[in-house]
Amino acid sequence: MINAIVLFIFAGIAEIGGGYLIWLWLREGKPFYWGAFGGIALAIYMVIATFPSFGKVYAAYGGVFIVLSVL
């Protein structure tokens, strides 16, 4: 259970942070490396999403994603 919670938090930060960095690069004119770091963060999210303990309870991740997005 703890393992899944930690994975959810890391996945949420990677997904939200990666998307936000890419948005800042494209919309706000930040340097290219902001977009590159955003792409790396999204790639890390995809790796986390392949872990077996993450996949078993993926539906619950939606709730975690919403909470992290609001924060």
Automatic annotation (TrEMBL):
Q: Which Pfam families match?
A: UPF0060 (PF02694)
Superkingdom is: Bacteria
Q: Does the keyword Protein biosynthesis apply?
A: no
Which residues span the membrane?
5-26, 32-51
Alphabetized, the UniProt keywords read: Cell membrane, Membrane, Transmembrane, Transmembrane helix
One GO cellular component term, please give it. Answer: plasma membrane
Report the protein name in the record: YnfA/UPF0060 family uncharacterized protein
> Which species is this record about?
Falsibacillus pallidus
